[in-house]
Amino acid sequence: MERARDAQPDDLPALADMAADAVAEQCDARGGWVWSRREARALPLERSLQAAIENPEAIVVIGDLDDAPVGYAVAHLELLRTGEPLAVVEDIYVHPDGRGVGLGEAMMDRVVAWATEHDCVGIDAFVLPGNRQSKNFFETFGLTARAILVHRRLRDD
């Protein structure tokens, strides 16, 4: 059975492993080279995830499948220049073995509920270009593109 729950400090090793898997899965995708160096979760992973768990303006969700953690999501509050809060999804990942059973949806439902509880004006999430599966996932929650980020690579290292 799948379920989404708030992460606890003893979840840190599993969270760090999943965060590493998430970056590895995306770093070679279109846009992934810069994303993995700029927007991906800060290293060391356990420290940045612990900070998120301890942050009262963030939520870390674990996705369990048969009581085993196979997914996670992280979101934080960001104040707009108007002072209104915006929920920003930093990470959402489900291990390939746990996909297709509703776990991502359960975690996103928890994030949406949290954002609603904090009176957020909206929710932002980042999707790499060409990642149609993630784009379609977010669209089921009403998230649509609001900006396009362009980039020119100058070095091949």
Structure description:
With 157 residues, the chain is α+β, with helices and mostly antiparallel strands. It has one domain: 3-Layer(aba) Sandwich (Aminopeptidase). The chain is 35% helix and 24% strand. It is built from five helices and five strands, in the order βαααβββαβα. It has helices spanning 12-26, 32-38, 45-54, 103-117, 132-139; strands at residues 2-6, 58-65, 68-79, 85-94, 123-125. A five-stranded mixed beta sheet has the order 1-2-3-4-5, sandwiched between helices. β4, α4 and β5 form a beta-alpha-beta unit. α1 packs across α3. It is globular. It starts with a strand and ends in an 18-residue tail after the last helix. The mean pLDDT is 97.
What's a concise summary of this model?
The chain is α+β, with helices and mostly antiparallel strands.
List the helices and strands and how they pair.
Blueprint: E1 2-6, H1 12-26, H2 32-38, H3 45-54, E2 58-65, E3 68-79, E4 85-94, H4 103-117, E5 123-125, H5 132-139
Parallel strand pairs: 4-5
Antiparallel strand pairs: 1-2, 2-3, 3-4
Helix pairs in contact: 1-3
CATH superfamily: Gcn5-related N-acetyltransferase (GNAT)
Give the radius of gyration. 15 Å
What's the tally of helices? 5
Kindly report the average pLDDT value.
Answer: 97
